[in-house]
Amino acid sequence: MIDTELYAAKKLYPFQEKTVNEILGELEANDKDFNLLFQLPTGGGKTVIFSEIAKRHIERTGEKVLILTHRIELSVQTSKQLSAINVGNKVINSEVKEIPDQHEYNCFIAMVETLNNRLNDDENFIKEIGLVIVDEAHYNSFRKIFQFYGNANIIGVTATPLSSNKALPLNDNYNKLLVGESIASLIEGGYLADAETYTYDVNLHGLKIGSNGDFTVSSSDVVYGNYFMQEKLLFAYEEVAIGNKTLIFNSGIETSIRVEETFKKRGYKIRHLDSTFSDKDRKDVLSWFKETPDAILTSVGILTTGFDEPTVRTIILNRATRSLTLYHQMIGRGSRKLPNKDQFKLIDLGNNVRRFGIWQDYISWQDAFRFPDRFLESRLTESDDIEFEVEFEFPRGLDEVLDIKELESFNIKEFYLECIDNGTKGKEAVDKSLENHYNVIHKAAEDFFHGLELMEHLQPHIEHRLKHYTKCITKSTPNYYKYLIETYNRQLRQKLRAGLEDE
Fold first, then answer.
1. Within 13 Å, how many C-alpha atoms sit on residue 234's CB side?
2. 181, 203, 233 - which closes a domain
3. 166 shares a domain with 94
4. Which of 156, 191, 221, 234 could be stapled to 252 by a disulfide with Cβ–Cβ 3.0 to 4.6 Å?
5. Model pTM?
6. Which domain range does residue 464 map to?
7. CA dihedral 383, 386, 387, 388 (to 10 degrees)
8. For residue 9, what pLDDT band results from cuts at 50, 70 and 90?
9. Which residues of 134-154 are buried (b: 16+ CB within 10 A; e: fewer)?
């Protein structure tokens, strides 16, 4: 049974009141086919804001409101806030199979996967919804719900208006982005704690980029699980944060467990937490962390959202990421303000600050929303040679279909440099790469259409290679890279057609 114990209603700050009025004004000025995305930094009170929006929308229109989350913790948090401001609500969790009493409620909170299952069984599972509010709207899992509520307005709420899947940008589903207060202004206004940033250069050689565009867990465990990285982490903690309540983010479970062992040997109070923990064990660990002043909690992913512990005074990024969203989510866990907490410490052990800039820096979120590809490319700057340090990791199981060793035998950067040394055109590296991809696909393909399927599986690898090439030539532009990808794919398809249809 979910505990929906009331907590005191939170009075809106002036900037939150302004935001609520702006969002409601946009809804009033537009039709039911209008969807709005709202951005506000972690710690800015998104739950308070969209709960108030739900309340006023119900009072103004009489329509029912559906709030979507992706974690049960967020559902419970939202339910408590709604109850505190006297909005009758019902949480749709895995235990709720039907809602015979739905006429008694004006607002429903549901986890996206649970609701999707119910709606696929019965599309009228929740009826008469006039407004859908999506928390953490950058997650693409919410899209599957939208088809059931075509006659409702949709408001997405996120700290980082970048889709978790670059192939499915947020501007496909939202008509407009409303940007809230910046991190710097919230710090200046006394609403967020300021970050004191400490960076330690880390050799990331050995990391691999997966098909999702981020560094793989397996390669991160290898890099961060070794003795020297563990010692560097311990050194950084003892130099900067010793005695502080500390939250350590890791990429993989093996690394986090190793961190727990390392710190325990030094006599520090530390516990490990990951997504495999039961609800009971998770609550036990979080309760211990809350009540222990100098506690250290080492975790994997699970605490990036739906976790609120304002007493955290140090955040350690014991991992590298290529996701700006994840970068902000992790740091945001330390930004909660307290009367005796104006600052928190940020320790970066993944060259993340070099990759994305200081957390407090201004970011043009409108550019991120309108031109996500260009925006992301500009954040991973030319000066950051991280992609030259890493290998590409192919999706699991692809080695059963394609000769991965032959693909790995060709290094486009090395071949490019050989061309330059020999006085030949660097463009030959692209031609050689194309030949390599063609040979591997040709050997494995049953026919032309099968070849196209295999080619699709290799798209992330093709893009990875060509990105290396464009960095080699230094004067490349995003448009040139796009042109190069299109040309490369067209020529590869032509070669496959010629090579496979004649057989």
1. 19
2. 181
3. yes
4. 221
5. 0.75
6. 394-501
7. 90
8. low
9. bbbbbbeebbebeebbeebbb
